[in-house]
Amino acid sequence: MASELHLKEDFRSPWFLAILGLVAVALAGTIWMALIASQTSPGLVSEDYYEKGNNYFHKTPEQQNEAAWRLNLMPPAKAKAGQAQMYRLYVVMDNGKPATDGKATLFAYRPSDVKADFTVAMIQEDVGSFSVEASFPLPGTWDLIAQIESGGKKYDVVQRIFVGD
Hints:
four-stranded antiparallel sheet, rod-shaped, single chain, alpha+beta, Immunoglobulin-like
């Protein structure tokens, strides 16, 4: 009987109740964050994100023996959201001469929001030079992939930029 009375007093201790309350709040907060994350997550930037990423770092033996084209993507010094700015791509073929033909495209991926991604075709300004005016709808970090397709082959360059307000 005395031990039951002592046990009831332990459960009424302010220290015990405070620790129990802290554990309950932490557990409720964790469950709440998990629910919010599962309902609002935009998912991956593209469906084949991992395959594209592996292509940048793991080349096949055929690709390693191939002489690669050199691409240089030149974004503006300070990109701003909602403002059309010029993005240039300079392409040098494997023989060291500027590219004379090809179809260039600029892909813009926003890692935190797949709905903001967009693609624009680039226009050839001069031999080896392509450009496009692009406007980013949202500020933040963006991954740019400039790709040129020529002779049935695709070459690309990747660059991460920050778009300000």
